[in-house]
Each structure stands twice: as structure tokens, then as C-alpha cells.
Automatic annotation (TrEMBL), chain A:
Protein's name according to its UniProt entry: Polysulfide reductase
Membrane topology listed for this record: Multi-pass membrane protein
Species of the source: Thermomicrobium roseum
UniProt similarity note: Belongs to the NrfD family.
Keyword entries, A-Z: Cell membrane, Membrane, Transmembrane, Transmembrane helix
Transmembrane regions: 15-35, 69-88, 100-119, 139-160, 202-226, 238-262, 274-292, 322-343, 355-375, 391-408, 415-439, 459-479
Subcellular location: Cell membrane
One family name in Pfam for this protein: NrfD
Primary site of residence: membrane
Record's GO cellular component terms: plasma membrane
UniProtKB/TrEMBL annotation, chain B:
UniProt keyword Membrane present: yes
Keywords: Membrane, Transmembrane, Transmembrane helix
Spans through the membrane: 7-28, 40-61
Protein's name in the database: Tripartite tricarboxylate transporter TctB family protein
Organism: Thermomicrobium roseum
């Protein structure tokens, strides 16, 4: 049986010691997240940093909603890429199609859990949504279109898209044969079935693209149409949200594609052309987002109300400046990394070759320092004095810059590494921008005469979010241990 | 048969969405925020799911046997 298992492509059904360690680690994190969530459920939201706006000087939405917005954003790229591949016959991108579909589904599940975590009484919220929700509310659109429509449509797309592979794998004896037969549901890969499948996926793709733009816009409208909340009330929220969703999602897809390329024996199928195409798309989306951001800031600074201007000041030079400029730096550096390959070949040839090792070591050092500084800023771990922490933050910035300069030659010549670096940078930036979208307008954007509030997440919130990330990775890894990550090649199908 | 069933599902799905959105959930009622019919939002979601489920039905139902 073990030999038969070994014949399935893409490492399906094979669990190495390293993989078991990874799964055990992820399960531990999920268990820790569940434990902290049980504490929140028993003791209430008082164990979090969430408080009433105004009267309690806090923020009612914090880390959970930040990551709900982030996860919904990540989900955008997956099914978009899959649908675009089908609509525009981008066959060279097919190797990442299923990775993208699974990313969408995983991210949407995590988004739903993030919202549930934000509710003091999740079951009551869940029942009342279906019972009393008002269709006029953008929340209704968010939950019905995103969770019901978008998640369901993605599941249908993944299921139908995988039937051919399931049918091919069902021909080979393995422990998963019954599962593949069930998935294939009688599919035999005849020309008539293929033609029917093509018709269905075309219509599905046509239906999904407008649905996902609408669904993502509604989440932008949750913030954008709140006229009583300076910083949120903006026409650009919905389009900006869609574009940022694309940035974070494509960035994560680049990282996943690079990991699959590195660990799978058939990894070369995720060829460099895919990274070039996705990188170019990501670059365009980053530039579009930066344009939106500058337009929004110029408008609020030049002609906004007093409250709007105060929010913008807190972002540019106040309490949130470090996060704002850090996020902008992530986006700009991401765009810069992706632009490197457009340099003339003669110029690239003159760039000296430097080993990326030192750049990576310094980069990791900078990340550790930034992490320590962030923990101290959140009052979660304070080993340094305020002055030392400030110097450490500047040291981290200097190290990050040196690391970036040392890595530039390597990133110029390696399109995969450039994609991964840009993916990491823009995802950190996306999380930062989501925090800035959710929090400052609640703490600083008061029209009523309350003083500025504050919000700092507690260990409970951070643990639950870490647990959710672990759950997402676990689901993703386990899914691709039972189902092929890419389309099964004719030489691998085991067909008679 | 398969095409008829698929189209029926799509039509019923959209009809359910429109009916629940514009009438049963009462978006134009200025006095009450609750839907006129409890669980009308759930009907809307059912409508969305029905439309996409039509794709599965279209693919999974076997071809009509030609004599």
C-alpha cells in the first residue's frame, strides 16, 4: 500500500517527519488559539483590548475586524486569478490555478471565524443575521455575498475544476481511491464531458468576477458610507479596498507558488513566467493603490473637515505615523523590487554579484527588532527602557535598509525571489493598512466632544489571530496532501 | 431535462433573491428595521446558493442516452 501511495503525484498522501512536525506545531497553535477563545467566550470581551467608542475611550473593532478585512482581501486574488485564467485563456498560469482557488476558500473561512471571534455571543449573532439582517446594510452584502455567495461559488468552482483530476487519480489504487471516486462523481473525461465542463467553468467565471467585485466593494462600503465617522467616509474606500485586496492576495499567491516550486518534485512546473506575470499584475495594483492613497490624503488635508484633517495628521505625523510610513515603505519597496527586472540588461550586468546570505541575516535581525519594538509598544513585553526601545527601532530601520541594499543584486536576477520578497513586503503593508483603516477613525475620529481614545490588542486577541493563521495553513497543507495542487499531467495520471 | 432543470434552478434562485431582497426583507419600510418575514435574509442566501448549485447539477446529471 505504501508503494501505491508513493505513486500519486505532488506528494499526495506522503507525510514526512518534517511535515508531521509542522502539523504538530500548527495543531498546538490552533489549540492555544481555541483555549484563549474559550477564555474570551467565558469571561467576555473584557479580556480583549476592545472597548466602547467615546464613553470608554476605546475601539469597538480591533484586531479581529482588521484581520477579517485582511482575509477577505486575500481571498480576492485566488478566485480572480482562477477566473481570469479561464476567461482569457491564460493557460501558462494554470499551475497556480488550484493554489489560488484553495487560497480563496481558506481565507474566506478564516474571515468568517475572525468575525465570529469579534462577537461576544457568536451563536446569537449568527442566528440573528439570517433572521433580522437588513438588505440595505453593507454588512448584509458582506455576509451574504462574501460568505454565502462568494465562498459557495468558490467551493463549486474548486469542486468542478477538480473532477477531472479526481477521475484520473481514482483509476489508481490508493487509500484515497474512494474519496476520488466520490469527487469525480462518474466523470470519465470524454470529449463531451470536457466540452460541458468548459461551458460551465466559463459561465461560472463570468458570474464570479462581478460577484467578487461587488462582494469586496460591500466590505469597503461598511466603512465608506459611515458619514459620522471621519476617516472612513470616502468614495474611494470601496475601489481602494478592492485594489488592496488584489495586492495582498497576489502577494500571498506569489509566496505560496514559490514554496510549492521549492518543495514539490514537480515544482519546475510553477515556472518563472508565472512569477513575471503575477509580479507585473502586483506592481500595477500597488501603483494604483498608492495613487488612491495619495489622492485621498491630499483631499482630506487640503479640503477636509477639521476631524478629517486630524485623522490624516495622526497618520502622517502622529500616533499612527510609524505604522503608516512603515506600510507605505512596504508598498514602495515591494513595487521597487518588482520593477528591478525592467532595468536594461546592460545595467543589470553591471550590478555586482553579492551573496544574499548577509542580506537575509540582517533582514531577519531587523524583523526581530521590529517585533520586539512592536510588543513593547503594545505593552505586551517590555524588556527595554523607552529610550533604548526608540534607538532599537532606528537600528531596525537601518538594518532593514542595509539588508535591502545587499539583497538588491540577488533580487534583480531572481524573479522568484523578487516575487517572494515583494509578497512578504506588501502583505505586512496590507496588514498595517488594514489596522489603519479600522482603528484610527474610532479612536481619533470623534464628532462628539470626547477626547482621543486608544486601542491596544491583548494577548487573547493576538493568540486567537495566530491560531487562525495556523488553522488556515493546516487546512491548506492537509488539503494538498489529499488532492493534487496542480492539474494532473497525462504522464502522472496512471491511466491505462 | 438537464438544461431545463439547470435553467429552472437559476430562475428560481434569482427570483428568490429578488423577492426576498425587495419584498420579504422590506428594505423600504421606514418604521421597522426587522424584515417583514423572519429569515428573509436566509432566503436571499438560499437564492444565491441555488444559482451556483445549478452549475453542479448541469455538470453532474448524466447525458440523455441516445438510442
Amino acid at each position: 500500500m505504501a508503494e501505491q501511495q508513493g505513486t500519486l503525484p505532488y506528494g499526495i498522501g506522503r507525510f514526512s517527519a518534517r511535515l508531521f512536525t509542522l502539523i504538530a506545531g500548527l495543531l498546538l497553535l490552533v489549540a492555544w488559539g481555541l483555549f484563549t477563545y474559550s477564555r474570551q467566550l467565558l469571561e467576555g470581551l473584557v479580556v480583549t483590548g476592545l472597548r466602547d467608542i467615546g464613553t470608554m475611550g476605546g475601539a469597538a473593532w480591533g484586531l479581529y475586524i482588521t484581520f477579517d478585512v485582511y482575509f477577505v482581501g486575500v481571498s480576492f486574488a485566488g478566485i480572480t486569478v482562477a477566473a481570469l485564467i479561464r476567461l482569457f485563456h491564460l493557460d501558462h498560469l494554470r499551475p497556480v490555478s488550484r493554489m489560488a482557488e484553495a487560497l480563496t476558500i481558506t481565507a474566506l473561512i478564516l474571515a468568517a471565524f475572525s468575525v465570529m471571534a469579534d462577537l461576544g455571543q457568536p451563536l446569537r449573532g449568527f442566528v440573528n443575521l439570517f433572521r433580522y439582517a437588513r438588505p440595505q446594510s453593507p454588512f448584509f452584502g458582506t455576509f451574504t455575498l462574501v460568505i454565502a455567495g462568494y465562498l459557495f461559488a468558490s467551493l463549486v468552482y474548486l469542486y468542478l475544476d477538480g473532477r477531472r483530476d479526481a477521475a484520473l487519480l481514482a483509476r489508481r489504487p490508493s487509500r484515497l481511491q474512494g474519496f476520488y471516486r466520490l469527487w469525480a462523481a462518474g466523470y470519465r473525461d470524454t470529449p463531451a464531458e470536457r466540452a460541458r465542463h468548459d461551458r460551465v467553468t466559463l459561465w461560472l467565471a463570468l458570474a464570479i468576477v462581478p460577484l467578487l467585485v461587488t462582494a469586496h466593494s460591500t466590505l469597503g462600503f461598511v466603512f465608506g458610507i459611515q458619514s459620522g465617522r471621519p476617516g472612513w467616509y470616502s468614495t474611494l474606500q470601496a475601489p481602494g479596498f478592492v485594489v488592496m485586496a488584489g495586492v495582498s492576495g497576489i502577494g500571498l499567491l506569489l509566496i505560496i507558488a514559490a514554496i510549492m516550486r521549492a518543495i514539490l518534485p514537480e515544482g519546475e512546473r510553477v515556472h518563472r513566467g508565472i512569477f513575471r506575470w503575477l509580479g507585473t499584475l502586483l506592481l500595477l495594483l500597488i501603483v494604483a493603490y498608492l495613487y488612491f492613497m495619495v489622492a485621498e490624503l491630499l483631499t482630506t488635508m487640503y479640503a477636509g473637515s477639521r476631524h478629517e484633517t486630524e485623522i490624516s495628521r495622526s497618520l502622517l505625523a502622529g500616533e499612527f505615523a510609524w505604522l503608516f510610513w512603515g506600510s507605505v515603505a512596504g508598498l514602495v519597496l515591494g513595487a521597487l523590487v518588482l520593477s528591478l527586472r525592467f532595468l536594461p540588461a546592460s545595467f543589470q550586468a553591471r550590478i555586482p554579484t553579492i551573496s544574499p546570505r548577509w542580506g537575509m541575516v540582517l533582514g531577519i535581525g531587523a524583523l526581530i527588532l521590529i517585533g520586539l519594538r512592536a510588543l513593547q509598544g503594545l505593552d505586551l513585553f517590555s524588556p527595554f527602557s523607552v529610550t533604548t526601545a526608540r534607538w532599537l527601532a532606528w537600528l531596525a530601520v537601518a538594518l532593514a535598509l542595509i539588508a535591502f541594499l545587499l539583497l538588491l543584486p540577488f533580487l534583480t536576477r531572481n524573479v522568484v525571489a523578487a516575487g517572494v520578497a515583494a509578497g512578504i513586503l506588501v502583505n505586512f503593508a496590507a496588514i498595517g493598512k488594514r489596522v489603519l483603516l479600522v482603528v484610527p477613525s474610532q479612536t481619533q475620529g470623534m464628532l462628539l466632544p470626547y477626547g482621543p481614545g486608544w486601542y491596544k490588542p491583548t494577548w487573547v486577541e493576538i493568540s486567537i489571530i495566530v491560531g487562525l493563521f495556523a488553522l488556515g495553513i493546516l487546512l491548506y497543507v492537509l488539503f494538498f496532501k489529499i488532492f493534487p495542487v496542480m492539474e494532473v499531467h497525462p504522464t502522472e495520471e496512471g491511466a491505462e | 431535462m438537464r438544461t431545463v432543470l439547470t435553467i429552472s434552478m437559476i430562475v428560481v434562485g434569482f427570483a428568490l433573491q429578488i423577492t426576498s431582497y425587495f419584498f420579504l426583507a422590506a428594505p423600504w419600510n421606514p418604521l421597522y428595521s426587522n424584515p417583514r418575514v423572519p429569515f428573509a435574509p436566509a432566503l436571499f442566501i438560499l437564492g444565491v446558493m441555488l444559482v451556483f448549485l445549478a452549475a453542479v447539477v448541469y455538470e453532474l446529471l448524466p447525458e440523455k442516452q441516445v438510442q
